[in-house]
Write a structure and sequence with these properties.
The chain is α/β, with parallel strands linked by helices. It has four helices and seven strands, in the order βββββαβααβα.
Length: 132
């Protein structure tokens, strides 16, 4: 795993393994909204807490030339855009669990994860919990 800090953004690249699990609808964690572009080895982009997925600008389109890009919106930004309050139980682990559920549902077995700001912290926690 390589960690690089630049210009106030944490960029994390890690091989993240996921497994598909059967979950009942009642206890299934929420999933992150995603935009998928391109094909090839998957790379997950996790945006910051202010602009979320839109904070990457043109980066997803450039990466999509050679990769399957999964540009994920954090729950915090998604709830804010929808004018909804975060659940009382919300925390960084909620974001990590939602990322896991999103990758499981899209059948992503391994991916590079790149996160900025809030997304960098989420990506780092995800990688620490999923070291393979």
């Amino acid at each position: 795993m390589a960690v690089l800090v630049m210009c106030g953004a944490l960029i994390l690249t890690a091989a993240a393994q996921t497994t598909t699990q059967n979950r009942s609808a009642t206890n299934a964690p929420p999933q992150l909204q995603t935009r998928v572009l391109g094909s090839g080895n998957p790379v997950v982009l996790l945006g910051g807490g202010l602009l979320g997925a839109d904070g990457w600008g043109g980066v997803p389109a450039v990466l999509a030339r050679t990769h399957r890009v999964i540009n994920a919106q954090s729950l915090a930004v998604q709830y804010g855009l929808e004018g909804k309050a975060l659940p009382g139980s919300y925390g960084l682990q909620t974001e990590v669990d939602a990322l896991r559920a999103s990758l499981d549902s899209t059948h992503v077995d391994a991916a590079d994860i790149i996160g900025m700001s809030h997304g960098g912290v989420t990506g780092l926690l995800f990688a620490l919990q999923n070291p393979r």
